[in-house]
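Working notes for the structural subgroup meeting. M.R. asked for a predicted model of this chain before we commit to crystallization trials. I am recording the input and output together here so anyone reviewing the notebook later can reproduce the run.

Input as submitted:
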Amino acid sequence: MRLAGGTGEQAVVADAVEAFGQDVEQEAADELVGGVPSNQTHRLAKPWLWGRDKRMTRLRKPASPFRYFNSSPEVIRLVVLMYVRFPLSLRNVEDLLFERGIDICHETVRLWWNRFGPMFAGDIRRQRVNRMRGFRHWRWHLDEMYVKLNGEMVYLWRAVDQEGEVLESYVTRTRDKAAALTFMKKALKRHGAPDRITTDGLRSYRAAMNDLGNADRQEIGRWANNRVENSHLSFRRRERAMQRFRQMKTLQKFASVHANIHNHFSLERHLIDRQTYRERRSAALAEWQLLIS
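Returned structure, recorded in token form:
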């Protein structure tokens, strides 16, 4: 559009503005193919992308937790397995690995079990909890055991099912109603409610179960709780090899890691024949090698 009554310079400027506007409109029309921008024509061949304005983002593979370590994942899994499962000290693991041609320091063993032990235990726990959701928990055994920390006695609460597998471990400084209630809430939230709960004569269990509304499921007997009493033995052997604990958080971490790894390799060898035991042991080791892979 020309400027009315304008000079020659104004006319030239008006012509340039009009030509620029026509070029912009032409470029916008060229970018549209069938009403769709040319950089989005690939969406026409994929109906499931219609109406989406954001570009597709590729699913990234989670980074490996072993990426910052020079040792292979197999060696790290072996170190964690030897230290947590068997009653060995840090230097015992170092010497046994040196006989196999693996030269590491005992402080490396400490670092690896602290870093990867909870990862392995968490992976085992998630898999076992998902598998057991379809099965019925018909009996739990609850008990608390004394553990000494720097001369002070603390309590490790443990829940065991009818087959001897440790379901939950929880460390407190007292064994009153509040501690029992917190422990039972953690176990019930993760594993569901059992039909029967066997305890000893501690009154904290009865008070906590009255608040939870399942006091009618409690059973108390003189030898009825031997299942959980015997499950303490493996932890006691491991405690002596470690020369006891010094901090509550270390005790809580190791109790949880030890319980899950013990469950993974608890194959009930006294109830099955040798051939079945060998097959189950091979399957457990194969599954262990696939953790966090």
